[in-house]
Structures are given as C-alpha cells and as structure tokens.
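seq as requested:
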Amino acid sequence: MKAATVKPNLRNQQRVDVESDIVIEKPDGCQLTCKISNLSRTGVMVFCNQEAAGQLIPRLRAPTPGNWIDVKARFSVPVVATQPVSILAKGHIVHLRRMARDEFQLGIQFADFEGNGFDYVDRYVRKLLADTLKPA
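struct tokens:
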C-alpha cells in the first residue's frame, strides 16, 4: 500500500492585516513596489495597480499549480520597536484576483528566506496575533 503524500494546507496559517510597502523583483531584475494587505508565516497578500500586475503576471492570467511565477520579495517588519528588520524572501506568485478596475490582489507563497527572515516574520505575526487577542 502506498502512503498518501500530505500537502500542507496554507490557508490554515493565520494571517494578520499589515499596511506596508513591499518590493517585488522578477527574475529579470525588474522591481515593482506594491502594498502589503496581509501577512502570514507562509506568504503575503499584496495589492497593486493593473500596470504592476501586468508586469508581474503575463496577460494577467492567474498562475496555475506548477506554473507559478518566481519572484523575490523585500519588505520590513518591526521586530524591535525602534528598528525595523529588512526581510528578503524568494517565493512564487500563486494567486491573482482583480479587485477593482485598477486594483489587483497577488498572493505570494514564501519558498526561502535570507538569514533569519522566517524567524522575524514568525515573531512579528505572533506578536500581532497576540495583540488582537488582548482585551480592550
């Protein structure tokens, strides 16, 4: 009997709303600045205009499994209150949704972090989740 391969359900990861800039770099070196909508330990959701989305995703066609678009993402998280930490992560664009005439939502799944990037994202997400659970 062959054992079934278990694939992680990334939607189980808790997401936190974050408003911050993110720079997305394509393999050809082209860089675009977008806005983070939410962040989890495994990925980030960003908003961008149609021009940026079109540069990142050819013909604005949603990526299909196995045909994800490789990118690098650079953003900051305030791990220490007085000093934000820069995060560099390799990932894949795995989601595209048109939200309005000139607004698109892109989902990037993280594949690899430079340095302690994962630990910083994990710490930041945990802190924001804990803050939302505190009584008012």
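The beta strands are 16-25, 31-39, 43-48, 69-80, 83-100, 103-113.
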